[in-house]
Amino acid sequence: ALICVFNGPNLNMLGTREPEIYGRETLKDVETLCADKCRTLGHDMRFTQSNSEGDLVTWIQEARGKADGIVINPAAYTHTSVAIRDALAAFGGPFVEIHISNVHARESFRHKSYLSDIASAVICGCGIAGYGYAIDTVSRLIAKG
Ligand code: DQA
Fold first, then answer.
1. Ligand 1 centre from 75 Cα, in Å?
2. Where do the catalytic residues lie (predicted)?
3. 44 is in which domain, residue-wise?
4. The domain that contains 65 carries what CATH number?
5. What are the tens digits of pLDDT across the range 93-114?
6. What's the pTM value of the predicted model, to 2 decimals?
């Protein structure tokens, strides 16, 4: 199966960005973790990051009919984007929302997600390991059909 892993704004700065919150690992490390996990499970993977909301919407649209599942860390757009929600609602397949930090232990504006109620699962506060858990979950959901 094909799993798309999409990353939102500022995640290109992982490793140097607020390391006390997000850790010292880079987005490249996240990509390696995801690639290893997908290879182990026998899946193909596309891994991308953008600072632009429109790119994420376009990628989700393009995943329709091609990808079997999506793992997405929408970063700050989690808390603002009806457009990303609408794109994911149209995707049709399973998607898992993942956050590196525990958003619920942070500022109140991070407690609201525009995606969580339509996500298959939500993972937060597990650090970058959460990406692996998200891929495991989406893989199980794809297998279930
Ligand atoms: C984040 C949490 C968001 O609130 C924040 O805007 C991010 C990253 C996380 O992975 O913990 O950029 O999605």
1. 4
2. 22 (proton acceptor), 99 (proton donor)
3. 2-144
4. 3.40.50.9100
5. 999 999 999 999 999 999 999 9
6. 0.97
